[in-house]
């Protein structure tokens, strides 16, 4: 089999090499196509375009496979902590006990926020969204750590700023919740692990520390691990694109938060909860909603949130894990949530309907995650922030990989121009 293909356009030939990935997936390298033939490729939404070579995460959407550095997500979600997952994504291997201890200490020492950031957060409009505050506060960190502006940081500098970002996102996420809830900020503790520290800063008071049930800690841990990375999605690609200009890490991550905010990405879990609430308020008539979702061209048509995925054409492996954890935590906490019943009925109806079967619309990672957050006590507007907190190790790993790759070039997509052809300028007095 040839390891290249030839593209002939207008008598001009470009020989494009074939790149083969570890799992056997192949890509045609068309990087010289424009120079050789004066043509570009067109791929709306980059659905079939690879922008980088990465060693971090593998996704096989057709078979419902997700692996971090080769490890199946099912095993990681069951056996590792969030910081172990972060270490794996960043360093390429699971840590030893000593390596994890050192890593955790390096994160913990950076948990405190600069006073100026807290003052800025206090001034953020309370009618705003926590994702806006998170993006703004992350970007502002560049002002407090001017050393982060070095466009060509050393490996040690990269490692240090990654620790800062991983730690401060934890504190910023909790402080965002406190700000929008009208509560005073709670300082982090050095004796707690990452997940427990987050819950402490969320729910403790000045007079009483919050001691979370292990079930709650375990549920948060599972959700964060499942969200830690997902290959070249919209927000990760945004972090890489921003970083390719040598923008500092804080600016690059802030850009990723903004991309994640959208309802078709990290905001989808919030949209799912709002959808379930609408169905419940309408008497729980799931079939009525399903019929509206199928109403092509109808003015009454609605979008079925939490179903389908750009990559997965099978059941999202993360959704299966989250569904089990959701049932488990609601049972152990003694929470009876009518929205769970709506969700189960909606999933059952959709999975039996030929319309959704033909389109391979299965529940995705967002479908059940909101019910867990709701059971823990988080308001709906905080759900995208939780997604950002979980996705942070993936963003950091991709930024690091990009920074250390000598072949990195500034991202600059092409376009097919469809506007007016060249026109003659007409002075104002002649128009």
Question: What would you say about this model in short?
Answer:
With 431 residues, the protein is mostly helical. The protein has 18 helices and six strands.
Largest beta sheet: what is the strand line-up? 1-2-3
- Oligomer type: single chain
Which homologous superfamily in CATH is the superfamily of the largest domain? Citrate Synthase, domain 1
What is the residue-averaged pLDDT?
92
Number of strands: 6
Counted up, domains total 3
Structural class: mainly alpha
Residue share in helix: 40-55%
CATH architectural label of the largest domain: Orthogonal Bundle
- What sequence of helices (H) and strands (E) makes up the elements? EEEHEEEHHHHHHHHHHHHHHHHH
Protein described:
The protein is mainly alpha-helical and 431 residues long. It folds into three domains: 63 residues; 203 residues, Citrate Synthase, domain 1; 109 residues, Cytochrome P450-Terp, domain 2 (Cytochrome p450-Terp, domain 2). The chain contains 18 helices and six strands. Strands 1-2-3 form a three-stranded antiparallel beta sheet. Strands 4-5-6 form a three-stranded antiparallel beta sheet. A hairpin with a 2-residue loop joins strand 1 and strand 2. The termini are far apart.
